[in-house]
Amino acid sequence: MKGMRARREIGFSEFVALMAFVTCFVAMSIDLMLPALSQIGQDLEVLRDNDTQLIITTIFIGVAIGHIFYGPLADVVGRKPATYLGFAIFILGTSISLFSYSMDMMLLGRFLQGLGAAGPRIVTIAIVRDKSEGPEMARVMSLIMTVFVLVPVVAPIIGQGILWLSGWRMMFVFLLVAALAILLWFGLRLPETLTVEKRSKFSVKIVMNSFKEVISNRVAMAYVIASGLGFGAFLGFLNSVQQVLQDLYHLGAKFPFYFAVLATGIGVASFINSKLVMRFGMKTLVLGTQMITVILSLLALISTFWLSAVPPLWCVMVYFMLVLMGIGLLFGNLNALSMEPFGHIAGLASGLIGGVSTLIAVIAGMLVGQAFNQTLIPIMLGFILLPGLSFAMTYWASRQ
């Protein structure tokens, strides 16, 4: 019996792999679609090319709203029921997108995909915390993030492969099958990690007081706004990158491979961040990165006056790689700075901070994306103005 029980228990490697796959649904749902945006827009009779960007933006709105609710829900009902709910909503949204015949129907499906995928993404952190702590938790999370960082590199290539074999609707079939397979894996192999006696009792008063505590902390909220603005510059890029590389530079089916190269910039930055932050500290590293991003983008914008508004491809790739490395350095550090005062309400605070910063990013990124005019100028302006404002907020907070 002991041998059979041991074989049934989930091992460390399987646990890390399962958590990584559960976490990656948001990134997969976004990056898989990038090569197909123009085809989806044509099939759904979208009038303005820039409106196809909403297929990307809408999923983030769902993620932002989901951030606020899943953390408290997982503390009350348990990790697995909250994750099941998220998967159910994601599967519903994927099915709606699969059979959509209008842009409105597509956007409804994408919103539900984001709302659903936010659950497994958030609850995963709680599950890891339940099963480990300290250095062991850091080890597990770093391994999960290693897989997560690979998704933007691999997903567009998979998406392009699906387009070669079939149409864009098959991408949603792929997501649907993947969700069902991972849900089955999760349900059969992972036991509930939060026992009944450790679950919280739901209290509107406690939740409201916690939210009030977060919102009333001016320094923390400054970092939240700074994080949202920085992320907004990235979303502006993400909204426009398919149009830039496929339309302006006519890369066609080569687009996913060029995007994969750019995505490695964020991965490299995330990898070296742990060493840089120990040497310079979070605040200095963030302020320096924001300033360098603004200066680099300002120089790139000035160069367009003699290189033209559509510079050579190699210049654009170098520029995008450098600014994306900067964004990679900002993500974790700004989130950590905003969370510092809230260790006693980490779950609620993390959800609220993630939701607010993502909503700010969605609005900012949408403004940048919708300004796309067949040149790189709107993206460059986004990487000047948004990190510039983020720098101002960070500088103010660091002086308090």
TrEMBL record:
Name of the protein described by the UniProt record: Multidrug effflux MFS transporter
Residues spanning the membrane: 12-34, 54-70, 82-101, 107-128, 140-165, 171-191, 215-235, 255-273, 285-307, 313-334, 346-369, 375-397
Major facilitator superfamily (MFS) profile domain location: 15-400
Coiled coil: none
UniProt keyword annotations, A-Z: Membrane, Transmembrane, Transmembrane helix, Transport
A Pfam family reported for this protein in Swiss-Prot or TrEMBL: MFS_1
Keyword rRNA-binding (UniProt): no
Organism: Neptuniibacter pectenicola
